[in-house]
Amino acid sequence: MTDKNKGGRPRKEIDYTSLDKLCFFQCTGEECASFLDISYDTLDRHLKEDGHDGFADYFKKKSGGGRISLRRKQWETAMSGNVTMQIWLGKQTLGQTDNSKTEITGKDGENLVFKVKFE
Q1: pLDDT tier at 17 (50, 70, 90 boundaries)?
Q2: Could you report how far apart the first and last alpha carbons of the chain are, in Å?
């Protein structure tokens, strides 16, 4: 029995090991597709054909580890005494902000007060 030629280009298999690593590093769908040498539409379609809900859903499942790893490193950096990272994490996590008050005197001697918020 011979296989009938269905025509068209042979299906390119997805290297899931590489795709998982790319998602871990927060690569976009277009970047993942480019690395795999296929179009984004092909990547999305193949993921659906392989039983996934497309790239967006696959990315949500596989990218969390990268975000956790990055957050852990940021936290370690802050806890080791990096003041810049402590301030940044305070703003991101605790909602802290920088506030500055500037007074400008008008020509009549009246004080004009402006509050400037830096974030």
Answers
A1: very high
A2: 70
Three-state secondary structure along 3-56?
Answer: CCCCCCCCCCCCCHHHHHHHHHCCCCHHHHHHHCCCCHHHHHHHHHHCCCCCHH
Contacts for 25-30: CB closer than 8 Å, 24+ residues apart: 25/66, 26/63, 26/66, 26/67, 29/55, 29/56, 29/59
For the chain, the structural domain boundaries read 12-65, 81-119
The tokens for 42 are 């092909």
Residue written as tokens 């997805």? 14
Q: In the predicted model, is pLDDT for residue 3 greater than 70? A: no
> pLDDT tens-digit profile of 20-43?
999 999 999 999 999 999 999 999
